[in-house]
Structure formats: structure tokens, C-alpha cells
Design goal:
By secondary structure, this protein is α/β, with parallel strands linked by helices. It has 2 domains: 170 residues, Rossmann fold (3-Layer(aba) Sandwich), CATH 3.40.50; 55 residues, Single Sheet (N-terminal domain of TfIIb). The protein contains 7 helices and 11 strands. The protein has a 7-stranded mixed sheet with strand order 3-2-1-4-5-11-10, sandwiched between helices. Strands 6-7-8-9 form a 4-stranded antiparallel sheet, with helices on one face. The two termini are 33 Å apart.
Amino acid sequence: MGLELYAKIEEYLDFNEEVKNLHKLFLKIIFEKDLTNVIDIGCGQGAFIMHLLANKVKAYGIDLSTEQIKICKDYGLNAKCTDIKDVKDSFDCATAIFDLVNYIPKNDLVQFLQNVNKVLEDGAYFIFDVNTLFGFEDVAQGVLNINLSDKFIAVDAKFEDEKLYTDITLFSKDKNDLYKKEEDSIVQYYYEMQYLKQALQDANFDVEDIINLNLYSNEQADKIIFVCKKIK
């Protein structure tokens, strides 16, 4: 999966306002629940960790992208390139922000949720967001081209068979004015509400709240936040 290439282009995709609003909602939930020790799964470049630390919340980040974790380390953040199944510490909250759960294949979803459950203390919370069908079909699909002085980025996303296939192409100019081409792909999976609820129940989570979001459009909800509590 094209995590490393995505890390190289993420800052140019102009999702700053949407991510900022999503972070505010996650922080609001964490403050309301009085949670103080958070693991951010798929932490990316550490923006949410920095928000947590600024509000006196202990935070640890993990991500499968070495490039993203390198940036976290450059910021002095407590983060590691590792899988959730290999985390040994325990927390009173886990977060998975900005579609991370949509990257988990359906055959792996329950195991992923069980791995999250294992790193949580009794009564702890798992808070995550997923894309709605509208979010995939009407928001995420399409072609985006970004032409900069030293690079050209092409992103082509197509939704079919309940999957969003995103092809990424990056041309980067070197010091000799020659261009290097990099290509990779990312797949995201659409999850129906009932499917997610059943998977969470199978992984010993109780769904306390479901929040519909309109981050990109006023027509319909394009994202959903799940607030889940570990029941054992």
C-alpha cells in the first residue's frame, strides 16, 4: 500500500481545515470523557498528538509509515513505526482519525479491533471516524492534479465494488532539473453501519455514540464518528 508515497504528498492536498475541524471534535469527546492517556493509531505527522500535549493529555502515536514517524520524531513526539498488535502498553483511550479504519480490509477488521481492545484499560474508549457512502461516492471520487515549481502530483480516485481505489503519481525535480517518477496505490473499504456495529460487538466494544459529520458538504454526512467503550 502506498503509505510512504502518500506521506510525501499529504501536505499539498489541502485538507487542513477539514482535519482541524475533525481534531476539534475528537478533542471535545476526549475532554468530556476526562481521558488522559491516548494512543493515536495512524498518527501521521503527529498533528493530533501535538493538540493532545498542548492540552496536558499524555499521548503516544503509532503509524506504519516510516516517513510519517520520522517527521514525528523531528518534532520530538513520542511515536513509533509499529503495528497496533505489537504495542505492549495500556491506555484509557485509542483514536483512529481521518479514515484509518477504512484502510483495514474487511477480513482483518475484527482482528484489528481486538488488537485495539487489548491495549485499552477496562472501561477505556476507542474513538474513530469512517467515510459514509456519500463520502466515498460524491466527495472522495475524482481526479486531482497539483502543479508546483519542483513537483507534479496526480491523484486519481475511483469508487467501485465498495472500495475506493486511489492511484498516486509524483514527479519530483532533482538538482539537475530532471524528474523522478514515483507511483503507488491505496485502497479504502466502505463499511455499512450494521457491519461496523457487529464487528465492534465481536471485539468486545459497546457503541456509546454515533456522530454524523458534514466536513466537505452540506448535502449529506460524509463521515461518521464512533465513540466506543471497552466492555471487557
